[in-house]
């Protein structure tokens, strides 16, 4: 088989691999990781063998993400941190893989369309699987994985599913409703922070809907009321479960204020964060390293040190990054998000694309204020691979709503 014939075959394979990989990623099936890493390896090959392939790539975003990853790796190696079990190295390496992944999409004509289709099929599957798991176990849903990780991946996939595709498939139509389809599996996960996604998207959607109410009148009002009724109907079956989780968090905070001792998840976060701020004030620019971070914070937390050490990270995107690689690393992380949004607003003419990208960044940050959103491979892949794919799509001759 010649190289030319292989590439011709891959033009048919690559879109299917990307769509199937997104579907598997939404269900936390490891084949999704393999699919995305396949494109990252292709991108790394092109970067080394054909540097000219960078022309037309989202180089600002790729450069910012690569610089952040290399800063974390270099800092860890200079500190002499052990290689075995070093989560900073593994996740920074995955971020670097996401940085070169856009180059590997050269044979996918409309990568964001395949991303959206895979996400939509995944959401349909989750709408069935999550209630079944809850009915069988009566416990928080995670499809066999950590419930918070599951909730974030579902939320991110629910945002990616709203990316416009031009109505290419009749049974997977474009629409903002795809995001709200993720409400049931997220609520059943019992992850309180993930529910903030629907506050973000509701605000964005209302911003778009109000002008339509003025111009289209009755039809737009009926559609808006219908959407609110559907969202309410979806929330009713799981409302009691979610309320219990919120009440539990409030009681933990009250007890912590009274005794100063942390015993649950919410109050332990409060103890960790206050101690982490004190440690950061002593090591602001380069932090203390990912392997020492929790030990230093536990020492500073005093009587709550044992509770702190039950966790592997600080459950806060700002403090985790600042203590691992300093304020310099935190600034590099911010540059990645800025590069992504600036690329979107410079090239995306469709408001639906802009809203989806804003929602993805806002959800990542808001969720990350309560969880280690950048310290898990599923989360890292869905965030940065998703961003890279969107930016690649925006550089194609007929992006998003014009798939022909």
Layout of strands and helices, then pairs:
Elements: H1 3-26, H2 31-49, H3 59-78, H4 87-100, H5 111-137, H6 147-160, H7 177-181, H8 183-189, H9 196-216, H10 218-259, H11 265-282, H12 293-300, H13 305-308, H14 317-347, H15 351-368, H16 377-394
Helix pairs in contact: 1-2, 1-5, 2-4, 3-4, 3-14, 4-16, 5-6, 5-8, 5-16, 6-8, 6-15, 6-16, 8-10, 9-10, 9-15, 10-11, 11-12, 11-14, 14-15, 14-16
How would you sum up this structure, described in words?
- The protein is an all-alpha fold.
- Helix content is 72%, strand content 0%.
- The chain contains 16 helices and no strands.
- The protein has helices at 3-26, 31-49, 59-78, 87-100, 111-137, 147-160, 177-181, 183-189, 196-216, 218-259, 265-282, 293-300, 305-308, 317-347, 351-368, 377-394.
- Helix 9 runs antiparallel to helix 15 and helix 10 (218-259) packs across helix 11 (265-282).
- The two termini are 29 Å apart.
- The mean pLDDT is 87.
> What spatial form do the alpha-carbon principal axes imply?
globular
Question: What is the chain-wise order of helices and strands?
Answer: HHHHHHHHHHHHHHHH
Provide the β-strand percentage band: under 5%
Number of strands: 0
Kindly report the average pLDDT value. 87
Q: What percent of residues adopt helix (DSSP H or I)?
A: over 70%
Largest sheet: none
